[in-house]
Amino acid sequence: MLNLFGTPHRGGGFCDGRTRRDFLTIGGTLFGGALAAPHLLAAEARQGTRTSHKSVIMVYLPGGPPHIDMWDMKPDAPAEVRGEFNPIDTNVPGVRICEHFPLMAKMMDRFAVVRSLVGSSGDHDAYQCMTGRPRTPANNGYWPSFGAWVSKTQGGADAAVPPHLTLMYRTGEQRWGYPGDGGFLGLAHAPFRLSAGKGTGPADSMTLKGVTLEQLGDRTALVRSLDTIDRRIDRSGLMDGMDTFNRQALDILTSSKLKDALDLTKESPKTLERYGFDDPAFERDGAPRMVRNFLMARRLVEAGARVVTLNFTRWDWHGGDGKNFVQGKKDMPLLDRAVTALVSDLHDRGLDKDVTVLVWGEFGRTPRLNNMASRDHWPQLSTCLLAGGGMRTGQAIGSSNRLGEYAVERPVTHQNVFATLYHNLGIDLNPIREFDPNGRPQYPIDPGTPAIRELV
């Protein structure tokens, strides 16, 4: 994957662990790495697939947000289960959520909450949220992320903006900063990373490190020379017309459209205030509280991105006396403001039917408090929040038992969630089949997995 951002870091490199010399490879990876999309652009031109632009913004909450303290509260349960927080009514009759989401409560008709998400692997890892599958030794680095499948299937909506972008920060717990990769679909479909490690936001440092446009031109000439050799070898005809699409791939770096999308100074002060103020300090080994990345995600999908992922603060709270509730009082209102601002913004701009928003973490939390008045890992049950995408919102899907331990009605899996996202993007999964390096047929999700019927 390609990263254009870096903040000076001890040791003379950048915060993502790369050195200045590493950035000199950007021209070399242009046609063989994250921006190597010529064949994809060519296929789109032949098939006429670039006629619509649907997008997904995925918000990942690293560490396991407590389902029972957020969107599946149990006020009638014993005190050691229900905890300190109280539920409040929403504008959807019968749907109650945590008191620390008052903005969401006022517009719950624009959200749908799944209260019966099952099948978590139980690992502190973004992998399952990015791919729909638990990480195993066999599929580690092998299985493409959701964004990679979308990139492969639909390509870019705009030649100057990669279809698969990530605002996820690299975190101290590395798995919380994992945005997925291209897997067996190839590096060309890996996420184009816009945030690195600790430092300022990407809009402040959108530069080509150590590479001038003249140098890019020299590398383009080199690619043409190598293409001459490739064309002698290639007998399939796939190289025909590739010069045109190489130039389109180069447009991603030479166009200002992506940089403009990352420039929040182009937004009105009123819009910026709507999202709140960023806290760039990293929460221990998690991500920073960058609420305006939600706004940046909206700008990126407007510019042409199909999938944008981001991570937000740190939700692993079971250490320390009562930390679950101390941190909840701090982070839940920030999430409330950021996600409601995003959904309202999309609605006001007429994008609510085109852009799907998904908020989730890797698992839920134990219904019963531990001896430190906090909650431990609970992979048996979790929740997720969805909005936009033309879905039937204003509802709670599924339910758990009276103690919030397991699903008793309408269990939903990660695969069901991804099937819903593909449906919202207008992707017909039936004809999609890709062969891995071993020649085995593979599919974006398990064949026959349905979307969440209540939503689509």
UniProtKB/TrEMBL annotation:
PROSITE patterns assigned: TAT (PS51318)
Pfam family, one: DUF1501
InterPro entries reported for this sequence: Alkaline_phosphatase_core_sf, DUF1501, TAT_signal
Protein name: DUF1501 domain-containing protein
Natural source organism: Urbifossiella limnaea
